[in-house]
């Protein structure tokens, strides 16, 4: 299945990128690199793609398994190499589930299925980075 994305220069350090969904996004650098900070940074966008891919899997599995979850988020910390080309060599993903009645075993299974089977972005990251996964079960925030 071919996917096409077109990224168009808007001047200075700013670009607009199409997406097959029909929603465009803007890419820019910070002022320290000659941009105005008016868009996503490309490398950070990769991390958002990773979290989004796995998050969509987990959300679908929560629905399919009829699990009760008040909220969840995915926090990612990534180490960028020092030498050019700079890339992420270590990535830590933290799946944080919130609720008073969490089925920890099934939620862990949902995370494991995403990480090990469904998330293609995860598989891409594994080609160049050491990826660590942690799952946290937390009471509902007051």
TrEMBL record:
InterPro entries: KH_dom-like_a/b (IPR015946), OsmC/Ohr_fam (IPR003718), OsmC/Ohrsf (IPR036102). Pfam families: OsmC. SUPFAM superfamilies: OsmC-like. Signal peptide: none annotated. Coiled coil: none annotated. This is OsmC family protein. It comes from Hyunsoonleella aestuarii.
